[in-house]
From TrEMBL, chain A:
Signal peptide per UniProt: none
PANTHER family for the chain: MOLYBDOPTERIN SYNTHASE RELATED (PTHR23404)
Alphabetized CDD domains for the sequence: MoaE
A Pfam family matched in the record: MoaE
Gene3D superfamilies the record matches: Molybdopterin biosynthesis MoaE subunit
Region feature (Disordered): 143-162
Provenance organism: Salinibacillus aidingensis
The protein, known as: Molybdopterin synthase catalytic subunit MoaE
From TrEMBL, chain B:
Membrane-spanning parts: none
Protein's name according to its UniProt entry: Molybdopterin synthase sulfur carrier subunit
Annotated gene: moaD
Keywords for this protein: Nucleotide-binding
Entries under PANTHER family matching the protein: MOLYBDOPTERIN SYNTHASE SULFUR CARRIER SUBUNIT (PTHR33359)
CDD domains: Ubl_MoaD
Pfam family, any one: ThiS
Stored Gene3D superfamilies: 3.10.20.30
InterPro entries given in the database record: Beta-grasp_dom_sf, MoaD_arc-typ, MOCS2A, Mopterin_synth/thiamin_S_b, ThiS/MoaD-like
SUPFAM superfamilies: MoaD/ThiS
Family under the similarity heading: Belongs to the MoaD family.
């Protein structure tokens, strides 16, 4: 039997993601709400058409940063249980790229914690998306020189209360 | 010896994903970046627009690099 990568709650993997599995990982008797954020591959961005995507990651560091986000969530919303799973490699339209699953005792916190999780991923987790359009390819993200990091690190990159 | 990692568009620009260099030990992160910009002039702006991690933690340009450190240049991320 192969190792189940999803035994880790914070995982970056080429294995397809499952909403049911993520939900089961956070569901527990003290939870009254489970919030699932599911990021999927978009075909149309304005009038540009995506054929497929490729995600690349600095896997070891990305998993460490996801773990850090999980710790932030548990500190801000006590009782929360979290898993964050990001897929990498080639993905087709509507494939699941990321799942942030959070359970909390009450519903409000589950929305807030979920939002915090996905926003922090977009700030500081070393994962990159390459779009293969019908008319070419490009790395997505702010790679067009509009954001500078003169200090070398992102704002709040190492903070636990970003 | 210092290990350098490049990713995404930066890896494409430099033509490398990783390299080991004898320089770098006892440099600050910012000095290493300037040195790399001289080695890879085609990636000059990508290097200045990248975040930098030392041993998998984000670092500032003033941080010192030690022997055997792994320094990763991280272009603006686009996960999610």
């Amino acid at each position: 039997m192969t190792t189940d990568v999803f035994q880790k709650p914070f995982v970056v993997t080429e294995t397809p993601l499952s909403i049911d599995r993520a939900m089961q990982q956070v569901t527990n008797p003290k939870a009254g709400a489970v919030n699932l954020f599911v990021g999927t591959v978009r075909e149309w961005t304005g009038d540009k058409q995506t054929q497929y995507l490729e995600y690349e990651a600095y896997v070891e560091m990305a998993e460490k940063m996801l773990q850090k986000i999980g710790t932030e969530i548990q500190e801000k919303w006590p009782g929360a249980r979290v898993t964050i799973q990001h897929r990498i490699g080639r993905m087709e339209i509507s494939d699941i790229a990321v799942i942030v699953a959070v359970s909390t005792p009450h519903r409000n916190e589950s929305y807030e914690a979920s939002r915090h999780g996905i926003e922090r991923i977009k700030q500081m987790v070393p994962i990159w998306k390459k779009e293969f359009w019908t008319d070419g390819e490009s790395w997505v993200g702010n790679q067009q020189e509009t954001v500078a990091y003169p200090e070398g690190k992102p704002e709040n990159g190492g903070e636990t209360n970003g | 010896m210092v290990k350098i990692l490049f990713f995404a568009g930066l890896a494409e620009k430099t033509g490398k994903r990783e390299m080991q260099i004898d320089e770098g030990t006892n440099w600050q992160v910012g000095q290493l970046r300037e040195w790399l910009q001289e080695q890879y002039p085609q990636a000059k702006s990508e290097l200045s627009h990248s975040m930098i991690a030392v041993n998998e933690e984000y670092a500032t340009k003033d941080e010192w690099i030690n022997d055997q450190d792994v320094v990763a240049f991280i272009p603006p991320v686009s996960g999610g």
